[in-house]
Design goal:
The chain has helices at 2-6, 25-32, 41-58, 75-83, 93-101, 118-127, 137-149, 189-199, 220-240, 266-284, 297-300, 334-338, 427-431, and strands at 10-12, 18-20, 23-24, 36-40, 63-68, 87-90, 109-111, 131-134, 154-161, 183-184, 203-209, 246-248, 290-293, 304-316, 320-325, 344-346, 356-361, 370-377, 385-389, 409-414, 417-422. By secondary structure, it is an alpha/beta fold. It folds into two domains: 2-40 and 301-430, Lyase, Ornithine Decarboxylase, Chain A, domain 1 (Beta Barrel); 112-295, Alanine racemase (TIM Barrel), CATH 3.20.20.10. Strands 4, 14, 15, 16, 17, 18, 19, 20 and 21 form a nine-stranded mixed beta sheet that branches. An eight-stranded parallel β-barrel has the order 5-6-7-8-9-11-12-13, surrounded by six helices. The chain has a three-stranded antiparallel beta sheet with strand order 1-2-3. The longest helix is centred in the middle third of the chain and has 21 residues, at 220-240. The protein binds ligand LLP.
Length: 435
């Protein structure tokens, strides 16, 4: 079973139950109820530490691992990231507020977004956020004006769209020309924005940012993006005389959802990219920039599983068999949105072969509410506990209350111990804002 071979967190105990972070998954389901998000703290810390080590080892002028917190955002995640001496990327006032609630060091925060509100920009300035990643000209002017009005000069990056077609799902390609994000390099918009930013009194242009997409397995697009950005930094120097010293290369490293997904070790991507950055900088006679990376999925996805209780099992002869669970697109909308692959198993029969083909159906009033179609599972029945693996990223953070379903709790496990880090919602939470 590939998920046991490739995971440091998962195992099978003497009862034949799935274990996660040293805890019996079936025991967790019974203790905390289902649906339940479970995250292994050790896996998160290890991923952050590995990225940080790669940055520290490969870049003589330093750098920062800024966890992309859109992947999974709640207070305890920010505490863990803070303790691992990493930074964060936030994309909204809500993420920023959550981080600040646990005392996250503001100077290690990178604030993104293609349409930040004036209130969010003011909030970021009040908190003293480290870098604001400016996405468009109206935002650039507005930020400069707000900064001047409060007597500040704000450190910024410009988000550049370098025109790279990374092989991934269409919805998560963000580096191409046809993108709502950033300043296009190819048509000269990016250079115009740089010239404007350099002239404005309220902002200090510190560097550039790009992000080429998500769930990318190849290293070439990352290398090409880094080289393209360095070429642009040299062009900026030649045209304006300004030498930018910081470069944020975004996130996007792929993870293993299914058996045929083959991500490289993150250290390999990092080695390839840093080699390219250093070689290009030397060739262009530029200083090696301070490098920021923003991994999201690869930090948290492998750390998470979701536990459900199996309800009805329905066989439609000659068509397919459905197994219904007590969650679905409200806690994991990724199959409904992107047809994303997931691996699932019956946690209380983890030692048995997955020899039955099932379509996993959620409980929403919506035919498309599926977690996976025609996937192999152990034979199962009402009351069994199902585990869906690698759900730590873009599940809790993309969850909803559709059909007025309360969001599940998040339990953090570590070395055989478990604790609630986000309480389950109840019906009172559901009506809280209704008048
Ligand atoms: N930096 C920026 C500016 C980003 O836009 C993103 C992701 C990241 C970093 C982190 O990328 P990661 O390392 O997680 O691939 N909801 C989609 C993914 C959307 C990604 C958006 N941006 C999904 O569930 O697949």
């Amino acid at each position: 079973m590939f998920y046991l071979e490739s995971s440091e967190s998962l195992g099978i105990n003497e009862q034949g139950h799935l274990t996660v972070g040293g805890c019996d998954a079936v025991g967790l389901a019974h203790r905390y109820g289902t649906p339940l998000y479970v995250m292994d703290e050790t896996v998160i810390r290890k991923a952050l530490a590995e990225y940080k080590k790669s940055i520290d080892e490969n870049y003589e002028n330093g750098g920062m691992v800024a966890y992309a917190s859109k992947a999974c955002s709640f207070k305890e995640i920010y505490r863990i990231v803070m303790q691992e001496n990493c930074g964060i990327d936030v994309v909204s006032g809500g993420e920023l507020y959550t981080a600040m609630q646990v005392g996250f060091p503001a100077e290690r925060i990178y604030f993104h977004g293609n349409n930040k509100t004036e209130a969010e920009l003011r909030m970021a300035l009040n908190y003293g956020v480290g870098r604001i990643v400016v996405d468009n000209l109206p935002e650039l002017y507005r930020l400069s004006d707000i900064s001047i009005s409060i007597g500040k000069k704000t450190n910024i990056y410009l988000r550049i769209t370098p025109g790279i077609d990374a092989h991934t799902h269409d919805f998560v390609k963000t580096g191409q020309i046809d993108s709502k994000f950033g300043f296009t390099l190819e048509n000269g918009d990016a250079l115009k924005a740089v010239k404007t930013a350099i002239k404005l009194d309220g902002v200090e242009l510190k560097g550039l940012h790009c992000h080429i997409g998500s769930q990318i397995f190849e290293e070439d697009p990352f290398v090409f993006a880094a080289e393209t950005m360095l070429d642009f930094m040299a062009q900026i120097r030649d045209v304006t005389g300004t030498v930018l010293t910081e470069l944020n290369l975004g996130g996007g490293f792929g993870i293993r959802y299914a058996e045929n997904d083959c991500p490289k070790a993150y250290s390999e991507y990092m080695r390839a990219v840093s080699g390219a950055v250093k070689a290009r900088a030397a060739k262009l006679n530029l200083p090696v920039p301070f490098i920021v990376i923003e991994p999201g999925r690869s930090v948290v996805a492998p750390a998470g599983i979701t536990l459900y209780t199996v309800g009805a099992v329905k066989d439609i002869p000659g068509i397919r068999s459905y197994v219904s669970i007590d969650g679905g697109m409200t806690d994991n909308p990724r199959y409904a949105l992107y047809k994303s692959s997931y691996t699932a198993l019956i946690a209380n029969k983890a030692d048995q072969p997955p020899d039955c083909k099932f379509t996993i159906a959620g409980r929403c009033c919506e035919s498309g509410d599926l977690i996976q179609e025609n996937t192999m599972l152990q034979s199962c029945q009402h009351g069994d506990i199902m585990a869906v693996l690698a759900t730590g990223a873009y599940n809790y953070s993309m969850s909803s209350n559709y059909n007025r379903l309360p969001r599940p709790a998040v339990v953090m496990v570590k070395d055989g111990e478990s604790r609630i880090v986000v309480k389950a919602e109840d019906y009172e939470d559901i009506v809280r804002n209704d008048i």
